[in-house]
Specification:
Layout (H helix, E strand, L loop, with lengths): L7 E2 L6 E2 L2 E4 L6 H10 L3 E4 L13 H11 L5 E6 L4 H15 L4 E6 L8 H12 L3 E8 L4 H5 L7 E5 L7 H4 L10 E5 L22 H9 L6 E4 L4 H13 L4 H17 L1 H17 L15
Parallel strand pairs: 3-4, 3-10, 4-5, 5-6, 6-7, 7-8, 8-9, 9-10
Antiparallel strand pairs: 1-2
Helix pairs in contact: 1-2, 3-4, 7-8
Length: about 300
């Protein structure tokens, strides 16, 4: 379990982080990112939407540049690319490095691959590691059966997995199938896109979870090394960081969160169908055809 302010090692990498990472792209102000760093957070995710205009422009990148300039050895940076070709992926990462004034990123994240990325892309990512433009490669995915395959690829050192009380499927499809020397695992969507915080989706008589509850649930798993928060405001960031103050959930709390999560999942099936349409377009762009993720082959 990694739900505390103590630093943990991400799998078999040499990266040590406080197990709550802060992601860009959601509008949080740069001053909040710097406050998070001063509080102890050191994992920062510079995503695909690096300068959002809604709900307001963000200076997250400028803050991360200042943080890294002052204390590069203490900050762990993640730069993501959704590019589907080696050339575009390399250009995307190089652009991110220039914007942040970095010589390298600690993690190169290949975003949203529902089957294992093609060899040419993984080889290009490995080349960036060899050139020390990145230290490690991480892959994010919505298709859980792909993770055990990725976990055994020596070019992939970290996995980014959806895991929350409403979507705990990794406990069956991923965690039992990981090698002994497993990759680092970072969870995302701990609040299930805030569905777990919505009183209208919570069964009558049940307490409505807080954001801290959601992050505590994810970080109570022995397989989850860290979890990203997409906080939009300082208040949301404080809610997420409170999870580290409270520590892991006890057995009674875990049973309650699973009960609430199961109900939320049942009540949001239509919303899930909408996301599945978008997922088909991602698979099409990835070269896998216009197919839902659950129809993709289990091996690739």
């Amino acid at each position: 379990m990694s739900c505390s302010w103590a630093r943990v090692k991400l799998g078999s990498t040499n990266l040590e982080v406080v197990p709550l990472g802060l992601a860009a792209s959601y509008g949080i102000e740069g001053k909040e990112a710097e406050r998070a760093f001063n509080r102890g957070l050191n994992l920062f995710y510079w995503g695909a939407l690096r300068a959002p205009v809604f709900p307001r422009p963000s200076d997250f990148g400028r803050a991360l540049k200042r943080i890294a300039h002052c204390d590069r050895e203490k900050v762990v940076t993640v730069i993501q690319s959704y590019a589907r070709s080696p050339r575009r992926m390399t250009l995307s990462i190089e652009k991110g490095l220039r914007e942040l004034h970095l010589d390298y990123t600690d993690v190169l994240l290949l975003g949203w691959w529902n089957l294992t990325p093609p060899e040419r892309l993984l080889d290009a990512a490995a080349k960036l590691v060899q050139q020390y433009r990145a230290r490690y490669v991480m892959v994010s995915c919505h298709n859980r059966p792909a993770f055990p395959i990725l976990a055994r690829d020596p070019r992939v050192s970290l996995l980014m997995i959806r895991y929350n009380a409403a979507h705990p499927g990794a406990e069956l499809d991923v965690f039992p199938h990981l090698p002994t020397e497993r990759p680092g695992i970072v969870a995302y969507t701990a609040t299930s896109w805030e569905q777990l915080l919505n009183p209208a989706l919570i069964p009558a008589g049940e307490r409505v979870p807080t954001a801290a509850d959601c992050y505590r649930f994810a970080l109570s798993s022995p397989y989850i090394d860290a979890c990203f928060t997409g906080a939009k405001t300082g208040a949301e960031l404080d809610g997420a960081m409170r999870a580290l103050d409270l520590g892991p959930m006890n057995d009674e709390e875990l049973v309650w969160m699973r009960r609430v999560g199961s109900s939320v999942r049942q009540r949001t099936q239509m919303d899930s169908k909408g996301r599945a349409i978008f997922d088909r377009f991602v698979n099409l762009a990835s070269g896998f055809g216009f197919r839902p993720t659950d129809k993709l082959p289990r091996n690739h």
